[in-house]
Amino acid sequence: MSGPETPASAALPAAELYRTSINVEWIDYNGHLRDAYYGLIFSEATDALMDRLGIDAPYRQRTRNTLYTVEMHINYLQEVHQSDTVTVGVRILDSDAKRMLVGMELTSPRRPAPAATAELMLLHVHQGETPATVPFPTQIAQAIEQFREDWPGALAGPGSRRMEIRRRT
Fold first, then answer.
1. Model confidence over 64-112: pLDDT tens digits?
2. Complete domains list, the chain, with CATH
């Protein structure tokens, strides 16, 4: 797992994998983005990460393997308004044979600091009659490692509770 956040590692850019404007239907009575739509935006960014790593529609159709989100923590740091266009930066903070711990930062051009951050635990699953976890194939594991090398660093912002991949000894 990545070490404690340091100003130097947090300042490194994340891979900007997803960008969206904010739909008027996503805005609450206060004029801010509803909390559920942060989850939608982070979910769409997860799909973009899957495509980047080769866990795309053809892979899923051919292998019946996909990623399940088994845990997500969101920190709401600043308001997002209907006039905003937001970008999600992504880092893979840790991984093992079947899991990825992913950090995401939702930013807006209006502010330099993230408006929200998310940590997601993603699990590689074969969708058979009874879904079961399966190791990443070599090509996907290599893509995960390359992504981690290309976009190192820690998640910016606070964490409500640190998620981690526990190693069995």
1. 999 999 999 999 999 999 999 999 999 999 999 999 999 999 999 888 7
2. 14-150 (3.10.129.10)
156 alpha carbon, distance to own chain's centre? 13
- Give Cα 8 distance to the centre of its chain: 21
Residue with tokens 């930066």: 89
DSSP 28: -
Please identify which residue in the block is written with the tokens 């990545």.
Answer: 2
Question: Looking at residue 115, what is its pLDDT?
Answer: 95
Annotate 49-71 with b (16+ C-beta within 10 A) or e (fewer): bbeebebeeebeeeeebbbeeee
Residues near 155 by Cβ (< 8 Å), separated by ≥ 6?
5, 10, 91, 93, 103, 104, 105, 117, 119
Neighbouring residues of 57: CB distance < 8 A, sequence distance ≥ 6? none
Instruction: Report how far apart, in Å, the C-alpha atoms of 80 and of each of 22, 89, 149 are.
Output: 8, 16, 31
Distance between CA atoms of residues 150 and 147, nearest Å: 5
